[in-house]
Write a structure and sequence with these properties.
alpha+beta; 11 helices; about 35% strand; 4-stranded parallel sheet; about 30% helix
């Protein structure tokens, strides 16, 4: 009997480019030994429901989703809620596809389908904030609202440029957040400067836009692990010692991420990103007091100087944030709600992604 593969796809992701390739994707799965169950999403939450139901019942031995990072988030959430361990494959079809880049998934859709069908899964970390799952980034403030607050047609037309322009444009009216942030820091060495020319170009483009705008302003059964959640959330594998730190003040943005690319910016979280060590990277940017400080911050990001008077960067296992007033969050590029008191935990090796090992 052939193993079953559940294929969940978002027909509206990106430029709806999946529609013309669905037959080829399903054929690829079938030719590689799977009986394919196809489930298109129609609304937010569908992917979570499909993944949870099929995983819990043990109907499929592998789940592959196609869409943006938000679709992947829903599938991971569903698998986590099911209490069963089912490998998750991903065919990136969104606008920026940050996590697909990090997982080293082939850019060609059919190649990505073959990769998802044939590659062995690898244990991977997942973040949790106030009971909500996030795959690779939870963020607030500047740049965090770019994905969910940019009209879909603008995303489709401008792609990654829309993300950059929408974020930079908001500098004129940037919201400040008064915060107390405590975090369990793990010392894994200083940030190593990336020599990625593509990352450098992305950041330089952002600086040009920022300067222009600021000048204007001035078939095996899945493993059941429902009783191991506490162990998985930062307690499995090699024991890592850390120390609690506290920072406070006014900040314009912050993120806790586990990705080589965030919002289209490659390398912004450093080179030392791993997917199975129970550690995410945290970046906080203080409120600039004037345009000169704002320019300094952008230049520090370009030069990968992620520790300065303006920028706080750390490898973390846990983060606790208390805000005075509202604090809206973005989880994997989608609106995650207002959470003025947020606790972030890393669930180590909680899911199995079909991905390449980091070199």
């Amino acid at each position: 009997m052939r193993e079953r593969l559940l294929f969940i796809y978002n027909p509206n992701a990106g430029k709806a480019k999946l529609k013309g390739k669905l037959s080829d994707i399903v054929t690829e799965f079938s030719e590689n030994g799977y009986e394919v169950i196809v489930m298109p999403t129609a609304k937010r939450g569908d992917a979570t429901e499909f993944a949870e139901d099929y995983a819990r019942e043990g109907i499929c031995s592998r789940i592959v989703c196609a869409g943006g990072d938000g679709t992947l988030n829903e599938v991971v959430t569903g698998v986590m809620k099911s209490g069963r361990r089912v490998p998750i494959g991903y065919i990136p079809a969104g606008t920026t596809n940050d996590f697909g880049y990090s997982l080293k998934i082939p850019k060609d859709t059919i190649d990505a389908a073959k990769f998802a069908a044939l590659t062995e899964p690898m244990p991977s970390d997942v973040g949790e904030i106030c009971g909500n799952t996030f795959v690779y980034t939870s963020a607030f403030g500047l740049f965090s609202d770019v994905s969910y607050d940019t009209p879909q047609n603008m995303k489709n037309i401008l792609g990654r440029v829309a993300y950059l322009l929408r974020g930079v444009k908001s500098l004129a009216e940037v919201q400040n957040y008064e915060l107390n942030v405590s975090y369990l820091e793990v010392d894994r060495g200083l940030f190593e400067e990336s020599e990625s020319s593509e990352a450098q170009k992305d950041m330089e483009d952002a600086v040009v836009n920022a300067q222009v705008l600021t000048d204007g302003i001035s078939q095996s059964q899945p493993e059941d692990f429902s009783d191991r959640k506490e162990e998985l959330c930062g307690r499995e594998g090699e024991e890592i010692s850390g120390r609690w730190q506290l920072v406070e003040g006014e900040f314009i943005c912050g993120m806790v991420a586990n990705s080589n690319s965030v919002g289209g910016f490659k390398g912004i979280m450093g080179k030392d990103v791993r997917f199975d060590d129970g550690i995410f990277e945290m970046l906080l940017i203080r409120r600039p007091r004037n345009v000169i400080e704002l320019t300094d911050i952008v230049n520090e990001l370009i030069s990968k100087k992620l520790k300065s008077d303006n920028i706080i960067y750390a490898h973390v296992q846990e983060v606790k944030i208390e805000a005075k007033g509202e604090l809206p969050w973005s989880l994997d590029g989608e609106f995650g709600g207002n959470m003025p008191q947020a606790e972030i935990h890393i669930c180590q090796r909680a899911v199995d992604y079909i991905r390449r090992e980091i070199e």
